[in-house]
Design a protein that fits this description.
The structure holds two protein chains of two kinds. By secondary structure, chain A is α/β, with parallel strands linked by helices. Chain A contains twelve helices and 18 strands. Chain B has a two-stranded antiparallel sheet. In chain B, a hairpin with a 4-residue loop joins strand 1 and strand 2. Classes of the chains: A alpha/beta, B mainly alpha. At the A-B interface, helix 2, strand 9, helix 7 and helix 8 of A face helix 1, helix 4 and helix 10 of B.
């Protein structure tokens, strides 16, 4: 009986060992390069998680259809293993661990949001797995000395400083008075740091500096203060909740400010949900379809947007565009490295210098993309109440002229 | 003027809180259940109004449609879950409703998506003192409807047969049962009425603020706080406590900053509990 137990234990141990080791060489199978991604398909980030996944899938299909990836004289195709991280950082870290140590993935794509990218980055770094991410903009991701993390998007601190610089320029080069309200999360606080830097650089003064709670749905107190002190610029960043709440209450309380700058306007579908009330809001965006960057796969922003809409039935938000760009970066790096060695691919990624339909991509030491400026668009509505987002800064890409100052509510 | 704006904003907000808290107080008093899913019922009510708005119906009609649907949702929840925990320890009911809360959040997220949404009432704004104090008409409408429903419910509880049965059950469930009250039916109706009140509040919130599947908890916490301060079965207390909390929140926001808004509510809760304990200990009587 005892011997039988020993044999069963021995056989089970061998079986477990075998089952875990069998799958650990799955990075490139046949003609497929397998990438791993933990994406928020459920939970509070699920909308943007789906935008991210759609962006990834569209790029995979396009690259595969257009000849795939050529490495060592052989042609490969991309394939992605997805897991749902449930919008939960702990789960995302577990899934990254699973993708790498169980599924044998050797190259990763990023999740949605700075918070989840922060949870995954230490895992990919530990295993030396190159990760190209497209949806984590928090500055703290790029100051930790990560060697295997590359972000195709501009860091969060650059989101709205263009707005401050534009306001100063319009003020004849003199500093402006800024009122700001930011949610207390990593991303929004980084946007705030960017504004503080811009204020210092331009000699502007911060006269209101409110921190909004995560469960924000009422900004009346902040806006009453804004009404009382009359700043030159009001800056709000609190994800979609912040953008929607701010526009609703600014309109209800008839708050007059010469410039209103925000983040997450397109994710919040501001112009659709608020119509004319959202008019003149200035919004930071990583990408806009009217930008004229070009590449061989998606041609340009307008073509990308049209193709995306054909596939998924809606206009692509920038989250999808930057996710597609991540695949283009990987393809380029594999071909330049001409190898699947993680170290070589990592070095090739670090040397990336290319243009995609999404923008120029060149990584700094910390992994952030330093070659793509943010764009500002302004919500502009016609008399029939149809609203559109038009790029107004930087001037090189502008498709409309910035309307400044915002007309008073009494004159609208 | 800033002070007046804060007081008025706080009062209008507080009246809405009081309506949600009144439902909680009713069900807590009658069934001895602390409903952690209170906020999620509010959000579900909000989605009903939002979908009416999406289909071109004015969201204000939500204050009629939403409570009707939510009443049946409440009764179904009672029949499926709550009736199994109603006589049990308070802790069991907290766990059960916590489970319902998580389930509701996930189901709403699955069914309606994770986007933050709102319903536009197009009610405009009332401006006072040369535009220095502004009151959104949607908030005034919300406060007005909340008061109408609260008063309606008080009258219903006093005059109707079911209302009297509910009050009798709250006083002594066993005695009420002996005297022929169908307590099972009373419990189901109470839970349904609570859900209906949440439905009204939700519809009003979708008009005045924003809704999102995961936004229910702050409403649960606020109503819990209001009920704790007012005491069970004390309707004027709930109304006063709700409005007081609204004004307190607005002032905390002005003076300490928005980041301390929710924190100050908790601090107030702790202070009130400590004060109550202190008062009770001075009044304590001993049997000799």
């Amino acid at each position: 009986m005892k011997i039988k137990n020993i044999i069963i234990t021995f056989v089970s141990a061998i079986a477990i060992l075998f089952s875990t080791s069998v799958v650990s060489f799955a990075k490139v199978v046949g003609d497929k390069i397998i990438l791993g991604a933990a994406i928020s398909l459920t939970g509070k980030y699920s909308s943007n998680g789906v935008h991210t996944q759609n962006g990834y899938n569209m790029a995979v299909d396009r690259i595969n259809d257009m000849g795939g990836i050529k490495v060592g004289g052989k042609t490969y195709k991309f394939d992605i293993i997805y897991y749902d991280d449930e919008s939960n950082p702990k789960r995302a870290a577990q899934l990254a661990e699973r993708l790498i140590s169980q599924d044998g993935v050797e190259f990763m794509l990023g999740p949605y949001s700075s918070g989840l990218t922060k949870a995954i980055a230490p895992v990919t770094e530990k295993y030396g797995v190159p990760m190209v991410e497209a949806n984590g903009a928090s500055r703290s991701l790029f100051t930790k000395g990560y060697k295997y993390l590359f972000a195709v998007l501009a860091p969060a601190n650059l989101y709205l400083d263009v707005a401050i610089e534009t306001a100063v320029e319009l003020n004849g080069g003199k500093g402006v008075r800024i009122a700001q309200a930011f949610e207390q999360d990593a991303f929004s606080q980084d946007v705030r740091l960017g504004i503080l830097d811009a204020a210092e650089r331009t000699g502007s003064k911060i006269i209101i500096d409110d921190k909004l709670p995560k469960e924000l749905n009422d900004m009346a107190a902040t806006l009453a203060k804004v009404k009382a002190v009359k700043p030159d610029v009001l800056v709000v960043s609190g994800h979609t909740k912040g953008a929607l709440t701010a526009i609703r209450q600014i309109a209800e309380m008839k708050v007059d400010v010469p410039m209103l700058a925000m983040t997450h306007c397109d994710a919040a579908k501001l112009s659709k949900q608020h119509g004319k009330n959202s008019q003149y809001a200035l919004c930071a965006s990583q990408w806009h379809k009217t930008l004229t960057y070009k590449d061989d796969f998606f041609k340009d922003g307008m073509t990308y947007a049209a193709d995306f809409e054909k596939l998924f039935g809606y206009d692509p938000p920038y989250q999808s565009a930057e996710s597609s760009a991540a695949l283009l970066v990987f393809k380029d790096a594999f071909e330049r490295a001409n190898s699947f060695d993680q170290k070589k691919v990592r070095d090739a990624l670090a040397d990336t210098n290319m243009q995609t339909f999404y923008g120029n991509i060149k990584f700094a030491e910390g992994g952030q993309n330093v070659d793509k400026p943010m764009v500002l668009f302004q919500v502009m509505c016609d008399d029939a109440g149809k609203c559109e987002n038009k790029v107004v800064a930087p001037l090189k890409w502008a498709s409309a002229e910035l309307i400044h100052p915002i007309p008073k509510w009494s004159e609208r | 003027m800033l002070t007046l704006q804060a007081v008025l904003d706080g009062l209008l907000l507080g009246i809405l809180f009081a309506l949600i808290a009144y439902g909680m107080a009713l069900q807590w008093g009658v069934m001895n259940i602390i409903n952690i899913a209170q906020g999620d019922l509010v959000i579900l009510g909000g989605y009903i109004a939002y979908f009416m708005y999406l289909y071109g119906i004015h969201p204000a009609w939500g204050v009629i449609v939403s409570p009707i649907i939510m009443y049946f949702v409440g009764v179904v929840i009672y029949k499926l879950v709550i009736n199994k925990v109603v006589d049990r320890d308070l802790f069991i009911s907290i766990l059960a409703t916590f489970g319902i809360s998580i389930l509701f959040m996930q189901l709403m997220n699955f069914a309606f998506g994770a986007d933050v949404v709102l319903a536009n009432s197009g009610y405009g704004t009332t401006m006072l003192f040369d535009n220095s104090v502004t009151l959104p008409n949607s908030k005034i409408f919300s406060a007005f409807i909340s008061i109408v429903f609260a008063i309606g419910l008080v009258i219903y509880m006093k005059k109707s047969k079911l209302g009297r049965a509910i009050r009798a059950t709250a006083q002594n469930a066993r005695a009420a049962k002996i005297l022929g009250v169908d307590t099972e039916k009373v419990y189901a109706a109470t839970f349904g009425i609570n859900a209906a009140l949440c439905g009204v509040a939700g519809a009003l919130i979708s008009i005045t603020f924003t809704i999102h599947p995961y936004m229910g908890l702050p409403y649960t916490i606020r109503s819990f706080m209001i009920v704790i301060v007012a005491g069970l079965g004390n309707l004027p207390g709930v109304a006063m406590s709700g409005m007081g909390l609204g004004v307190f929140e607005e002032f905390a926001d002005y003076i300490l900053g928005t980041e301390f808004r929710i924190g100050s509510v908790f601090l107030l809760l702790v202070l009130i509990l400590v004060y109550r304990r202190f008062k009770l200990s001075r009044k304590r009587e001993y049997l000799k």
